[in-house]
Structure formats: C-alpha cells, structure tokens
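Anyone else keep sequences and structure tokens together like this?

Example one:
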Amino acid sequence: MPATPAWPPKSAPRLFLAEELGEGRMVTIDGAQAHYLGKVMRVREGDAVILCDDVTGEWAARVTEAGKRDVTLEVVQQLRAREAVPDLWLCPALLKKDRFDLILEKATELGVGRIQPVLTRRCVADKLNHERARAITIEAAEQCARTALPALAEPVKLDTLLAGWPEDRALFFADENGGDNAAAAFAAHSGAAAILIGPEGGFDEAERAAIRAHPQARTISLGPRILRGETAAIAALAVWMARAGDW
C-alpha cells in the first residue's frame, strides 16, 4: 500500500499572523495575505496552511472557506513551539534602500534577535519606512521557516545609541582599521552581544573614537578587505552564528 502523505505537506504556504493562535481557533485572513493564498497559491477548502504568531510558535491550519476577498482557516495542531532566539542584536548604519533591504532580509534568515538601525554622519539615508521594513522581515521569516520574528527598532543616532547602551551587553564594533579576529572574539564571548556596522563611507574619526572609548565596545576585524555595509553585516552575523550562536 502507498504511504500516507505527510500532513501538512512541506509545500504548504506559510504566514505570520498578528493574533495569537491556538488549537481549534478559527482565523479569517483578508487583504494582501488573502490575495497571496487565494490568487498566488490557489488554496481551496481542505488545503493546509502553516501559521505562526511570534508568540506560541507554528501551527498547522486547514482552509474551511476560500472566498474572493478572504480566507477562513481552522487551526488544527501545533507543529513547533516558538524557537529560542540567540541574544544577538544587529546595529547596522542605514544604507540606501535596496542595500538595507538586503540586510533586513538576511539578518532575519540568519537568526538575529533584534535589528537596531543607526544614524551616523556619513549615512546616505536618514529615514526608514518601518512598516515596509517590517514586511521584509516577516516575508524572510516565512521563507526560512523561522517561528520568531526579530524585533525591529526605529533608527537612532549613534551618540544616542552609545549613551543608552546596556552595561550587560557587549558591543562588537566592526572597524575597517582593524581589531581582534572576529571569529576568535565571538567564540570567547558568552552572554548578550551586539554587532555594530558602519555606513557606505564608514565611521568618521570622531565616531570611531567615541565607539572605541565606550566601555562595552570590542573592536573586531572582518578580514583584510574593505566590505560594503551590507556585506559586512551578513558576514559578521554568519561568523557569530557559527561560533557563538545557534548553528
């Protein structure tokens, strides 16, 4: 006899919802998410959808009604509890929109716990569309099967960030002028941490001096080459996750 197909299938669409989920609850989805399910994924009554709520974790749901403007689902069973997220913040200077979009997407995929955008003197951009940025992190989390979303903060000026920095969190500063080997520094550290990445033109000398003087700052090197801001952020996160994170 043929084996019974696994349920829900791995191909089932994934969505993050704002409301908390639970077994037996009925959920109605409208707007862009309903369009995605109905017009893009073409779900029909009985089809499986995987839902996450960033609180309880991941759930399998079954479509009970697929209308033209909304989709109703019944939450059937929990698949996974909300994952434990490494206590790592990424503090990237704002970049041009497409490059910062890449940071948002890849930082989410790599498992960062919080993204704190930073404004520096050489930043080309000075604003962040928070709603759009949040949508990028949600889409990335759906794609990579995360059950927890990274916290996304509003941009702050560098001096404000340093002034309010928590005493119990190490601040790894990726300095193009050199520092300790990043992999070795990450492996030797335990506890809360953050990685600070500069803008396209780098930090100016006054900013670099202020960061180096901060008691929680630890200067690191990402190698012999000058990296773009988005490349530095992705590389640093990958190294951290491999040496001290959840890889």
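And example two:
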Amino acid sequence: MNITSTLCNELAVVALEGDVDLRCSPALRKELLERTFERRDIVVDLSGVGYIDSSGIAGLVEAYQGARDNGTRFLLAAPSEPVLRVLRLARLDRVFTIVDSVEPLAAASPGEPLS
C-alpha cells in the first residue's frame, strides 16, 4: 500500500493505493492519527484501494473518532466497489460521510505534501 498526504485548501487529503491489510494498517493508522492531531478536516481517497480488511477498517474508525473528538470532519472519497461492500457489511456506510470524489472538496488547489 502507498500513502500520499497532501494539503489542499486546508483539507488534508490522504490518498491510498493498493491493498489495506494487517501488514500495512499500522502505517495507515499512524498517518491518519497524525492528521487528526493537526485539527484539520481529512478526506481519505480510497479510489486506488482494491481490498481492505478489518484492521484497515479499524484504522479508519479510530481516525474518524479522533476527528470527531477534535471537531473536524472525516470523509471517505471514491471507495471502490469491494471497499464499499465491506463498509456496507459493517454498516459503516451509515457512520462515515462518503463522497464520490476528492476534487470538489479540494477545489482544484495544487496541494502541498504533508509528509
């Protein structure tokens, strides 16, 4: 899994690519929690993720809770069908705000790397 974090108009965009599983979920958790500590809205771009397991879901839930506790938004963008299926099975599609794309949120800003 590859993680790329950028800042677009004060919105932290965390783009994931590849499979999110037990092997890489600690890195995902670390990245997302670092972003929640910055107290900025976060959108996780899941368009490049073909598979996510329970450890990856747990990392997303923990980051969501951290953002909520900080009074910031935490959104998921463009989940692939397999990822959306897992979210629906866990009924997390009712918990997370899921948007079709990052672009309208980032408002076409070129962005700066965050890490």
